[in-house]
């Protein structure tokens, strides 16, 4: 070992696997960054003086006498207003051809906020998507995943949320994006002229999978800067957390850890919680809200990744294709925002909770009518009207391409009630019916 300007340099690697290498070294900390043969690596395991490093670019071609330089610090990101409108890789280096960022270096992957410094979430975040705002309102400081099949247009939905959400900063953490997805996001943000409030950290399918593990921490370090230092409302969009978890399993399997359910590492719950628990509402006004995509393989909600995610987050949003209208909708039956009651009817119009409940109940009546139809039973007049309502409701409110303000969503719902039902059938309080039921001109 030799020391060059306080950096510890070693040249004897004892073991190399596909994603990790091990060596004997002293005075090294967890998460410390090292450079192995010119490649970035991070300390993931310490037993006595035996140190295991995950090598982000993979270990192919690294000899046992390669130079290993420990940098004495965890990974960092330079933070300043200059981050706005820029695209970076997993290491925080610009990939959009723009200049390097000047700013204060912050360590990534720090602890989440002390519960004493948190405030109960109470601000409504409108997204312009009725399947979310009307039925599953999001609240600042919330953490919620989209559960979607891999063939669903979740990247389009995420970009829509990025453009429509009322937030000061939107931070995209893209993991395992195809080049097309990356260019799609870039073009959408460029064309919308919204780049000044959007910051993107991107790992594409052409980059080493292990690099994905840095992306959420990079995105959240930027988020903490704007939420804490600038007291801004920050929305963090992470896609796709399933590919993040796959990268975790690559590393843990290479380290000969015994895998748990679905070949995922035993630490999966805490690895995911470390990310999601960064969602917070500060008393001073800043907030971090996290919306993440978790793709399901074959719609399997019991897989370890969605299963653990469900324990940590406050609800879920389900995308599915509606066969009646041929469009993707936010499924009102399987979606749930556990915090929506903190804002609906309080930060939105008084009729919101009743309209939401009535619409979903009538939609359920239509589902029952469809079952009757499929089993050869006759439909009543009410069943027929419920089916017509369900089609209109999907088309005008649940479809993800509908972009309207909350008051307009409520008015649309009242108009659909009026078109298909009598006031008594809708089951909404009399005073609200008298106030909001469309008057026949």
Could you please describe the fold and organization of this structure?
- By secondary structure, the protein is an alpha/beta fold.
- The protein folds into three domains: 2-74, Elongation Factor Tu (Ef-tu), domain 3; 77-206 and 215-240 and 259-341, Rossmann fold (3-Layer(aba) Sandwich), CATH 3.40.50; 352-436, no CATH class.
- The chain is 32% helix and 25% strand.
- Strands 10, 14, 15, 16, 17, 18, 19, 20, 21 and 22 form a ten-stranded mixed beta sheet that branches. Strands 1-2-8-5-6-7-4-3 form an eight-stranded antiparallel beta sheet, with no helix packed on it.
- A hairpin with a 5-residue loop joins strand 18 and strand 19.
- The relative contact order is 0.12.
- The mean pLDDT is 90.
Task: Record keyword descriptors for this entry.
single chain, 441 residues, alpha/beta, Elongation Factor Tu (Ef-tu), domain 3, Rossmann fold, 3 domains, ten-stranded mixed β-sheet, 25% strand, elongated
Task: Summarize the entry for a quick read.
By secondary structure, the protein is an alpha/beta fold.
